[in-house]
Amino acid sequence: MKEWKILNKSRIISDKWQNEGLIDLLLENRNIKTKKDKEEFLNPDISKVNAKNVDINTTNLKKAVKRILKAVDNKEQIIIYGDYDVDGITGSAILWETIHAMNGNVMPYIPHRIDEGYGLSIRGIEKILEQKSKSKNVSLIITVDNGIVAHDAVDFAKTKNIDVIITDHHTVGKILPNAFTTIHTTKICGAAVAYLLAKEIRTTRHAPHPQDSHLELAMLGTVADLVPLTSTSRTIAKFGLGALGRSQRMGLKELFNEAKIEKKLFSIYDVGYIIAPRLNAAGRMESAMDSLRLLCTKDANRARTLAQKLELINRDRQHILKESTEHAIQEVNKKQKIKSKKILIVADQLYKQGVIGLIAGKLVEEFYRPSIAISIGDEYSKASVRSIPGFNIVDFLRSHPKFFTDIGGHPMAAGFTIKTKNLDSLIKTLEKAAEIAITDDLLKRKLKIDCELELACINTSLYDTIQTLAPFGMGNPEPVFITRDVWVKDFRLLGKDQSHLRLELSSKNQKPESISHEAIAFGMGKLTVKLKKKSTVDIAYSIDKNTWNGNTKLQLKIKDVKIYE
Fold first, then answer.
1. Which of the pair, 467 or 211, is modelled with greater confidence?
2. Least reliable range by pLDDT among 150-164, 213-227, 332-346
3. Which residues contact 544 (CB under 8 A, 6 or more apart)?
4. What are the residues facing 519 on neighbouring strands?
5. Domains of the chain (ranges plus CATH)?
6. DSSP class of 188
7. How far apart are CA 47 and CA 463, in angstroms?
C-alpha cells in the first residue's frame, strides 16, 4: 500500500461541488490559486505560445533566424541535426519542413544510436561531410533537442568553417558551447523549441503559418518526452491533440491504421503508450531516419511501407525489452538487498543500448529506486538513468564528473558514457553517495489524493466537470479521490495472466444499496488473496469512461486499496 497524501480535507457529499467549487479545489491542489492563473489554465491561448513566455533569449532567436534566412537565400547547405527519440524526430521534421518550404538547401540528419551516440558529435559531423554528393559546402548545422553540452563537436565544426545553432532544452553545464548562437530553455521540450524557431522564421519571412502547422508534432514531442503539462506545454498539448485528430499527414494516418487506432479525438494515453513507442522504436533498434521519413512523406505507398516497418520493429523491441527487464529484475533480486540499496545499478553486455532507458524505467516501477541500466561495451559502456520524484539524478551524477566521458539529461532522466574499465569503481562510488543523498522518505511510494468523495456523487456531470482540466499528464495529474467504507459486492480476475481485477463496489452510506459502480484495478490481481465478497475497503481512484462494444459508461480506475481485516 502507498502512503496516501490527501491534499484537501474537504469531503464531497453532494452535487453542489460539481461545478466551480470542485474545479477551484482541484486547481488549488495543483498550486493554481489566483484568478488570472485559473483563467489561463482553464482557457489556454495558443497565441501566447511564444519565446518570451518560455524564457528563450529573443536576441539569440533573432540572430539565429537572420543566419538561417541568409543561408536559405545563398543556397548554403543546411543540416538539421536531430536526436533519435520522438522529441528530436518531431522537432527535426518541423525545422526541415519549414526551411524546405522556403526552397532552402536543407538536409535532415539523425545520428545512429550505436555508431555515433547521443547528440552532436565529431563523428557525426565527419559522416555528414563524407556524404559529399548530398552535403557539399555544409556551412550551417542546426541542432534539435541536443547540443547544449557538445563543446568538442562545436569546436570541430568551426575548424570546418561550419556555424552551429544549438536548439535544446536539456540541463546546461557550467558553460555553453562556443556556438554561433544558442536557443535554450528548460520550460518546454526540444520539439517545442524547434516549433518556436520555425514560427519566428515564417514570421520574419512573412511566410504563411496556418494555426495547425506543426502543432501536432510539437505535441508529440511534448508528451513523449514527459514534459510537465503546465503553462506553455499544457497549451501545446491541448491544441496539439486537436490538431492530431485533424492531421492530414499520410505517415501518421498509416501509423494509426497499423496501431488500430480509429478516432478523431486523441488522448495523452494514445500518444504516450501507442503512438510514441512506434515512432521511438526505429531509433531504439535501427535508424530513426525511418520515423522522420514517415512524418514527412507525402507518398501514400511509402507511408504505408514505413508504418508497417515501424510496427514490426516495435514488436521486436517489445520482445527484447521483456527479456531484458526480466533479467534485470532477477539480477536486482539476486545480487542486491533492496531495503539496503538506495540506487539500483544493473549492467550486462546483452543489454541493447536502445532499450536500457526502458529497463531503468521498469526497475523504478518495480522497486521505486533511482535506477541505472548499463550496456557494457568492450572499451566504452553506455548507461541510461531514471529517477524518482524529488531526486535530481543529473545533478547527482554530475557531482562525480571524473567517471564520465559524456553526460546529460534532466532531473528525472539522464544518460552517460563511461570507460568500461571504470565501471566497478563508478558503481561503488554511486552506491555509497546515494546512501547520503537519498533519504528514506524519498523512497516511500506516495499517492497524492485530491479529496474524499462519496460514490453517490459520481455521475456524467461530475466526469465532464473534471475533464475541463484535461489533458492530464506529468505536472497535471488526473484527479484522484478516496472513498472510505466501501463494500466489495463482487470481483473477478482479468487478463491473460489474471493480473488485473474487475470489481463491483457499493458505499455503505449509499441508498439504495443496490446502486453499484464498476471498477478496474490494473496489476492488482494479487489482492484476491485477502479480498472477499462483502469485504470493506477504502479505495483511491480516478474516474474514467469505458467503451466496450459501442457502449460507454463510467468506471473507477483503482490506484490503491486498503482492505479492512
1. 467
2. 332-346
3. 554, 555, 556, 557
4. 503, 556
5. 3-42+446-563 (2.40.50.460), 47-211 (3.90.1640.30), 336-443 (3.10.310.30)
6. S
7. 29
Using alpha carbons, select from 410, 446, 455 the residue that is nearest to residue 556: 455
- What stretches of 131-230 show up as alpha helix (H) in DSSP? 151-159, 190-204, 215-224
**C-alpha grid cell, residue 146:** 541536443
CA dist 396 and 400 (Å) reads 8
> Which of these, 140, 73, 83, lies nearest to 104 by C-alpha position?
73
Helix (H, G, I), strand (E, B) or coil at 414: strand
Q: From CA 116, how far away is CA 110, in angstroms rounded? A: 10
Residue 135 clears pLDDT 60, i.e. is over it: no
Q: Do the beta carbons of residue 433 and residue 463 sit within 8 Å?
A: no
CB atoms closer than 10 angstroms to residue 374: 26
**Whole-number Å distance between alpha carbons of 327 and 349:** 12
Is the CB of residue 195 less than 8 Å from the CB of residue 220? Answer: no
Q: Return the C-alpha cell found at 414.
A: 539522464
pLDDT attached to residue 133: 54
Helix (H) or strand (E) holding 277: helix 276-285
pLDDT at 512: 54
Q: Could you give the CA distance from residue 228 to residue 472 in angstroms, rounded to a whole number?
A: 10
User: Using H for helix, E for strand and C for coil, what is the string for 503-553?
Assistant: EEEEECCCCCCCCCEEEEECCCHHHHHCCCCCCEEEEEEEEEEEEECCEEE
Spatial distance between the Cα atoms of 370 and 362, rounded to a whole number of angstroms: 11
Residue 527 dihedral angles phi and psi, to the nearest 5°: -65, -20
What gap in Å lies between CA 121 and CA 300, rounded to an integer? 34
- The percentage of the chain sitting over the pLDDT mark of 90, rounded to a whole number, equals 79
Is the peptide bond prior to 477 cis by the omega test (within 30 degrees of 0)? no
**Other Cβ atoms within 10 Å of 78 Cβ, number:** 26
The pTM (predicted TM-score) of the whole model is 0.91
**All cell numbers assigned to 539:** 479505495
pLDDT band, residue 16 (cuts 50/70/90): low
Distance CA 393, CA 31 (A): 25
Amino acid identity of 419?
K
Provide φ and ψ at 329, rounded to 5°: -65, -40
Q: What residue type is assigned to position 457 of the chain?
A: C
Whole-angstrom Cα distance, residue 281 to residue 113? 12
Averaged pLDDT score across all residues of the chain: 92
234: Cβ contacts below 8 Å, ≥ 6 apart: 41, 44, 471, 475, 476
In angstroms, what CA-CA distances link 442 with 223, 345, 346, 430, 446?
25, 18, 21, 17, 9
CA distance 150 to 142: 13
> In terms of pLDDT, which residue wins out, 309 or 21?
309
User: Which residues lie closer than 8 Å to 130 by C-beta, 6 or more apart?
Assistant: none
Cell of 16: 453542489
Q: pLDDT, tens digit, for every residue of 51-91?
A: 999 999 999 999 999 999 999 999 999 999 999 999 999 99
Q: Of 385, 376, 387, 359, give the one whose Cα is nearest residue 418.
A: 376
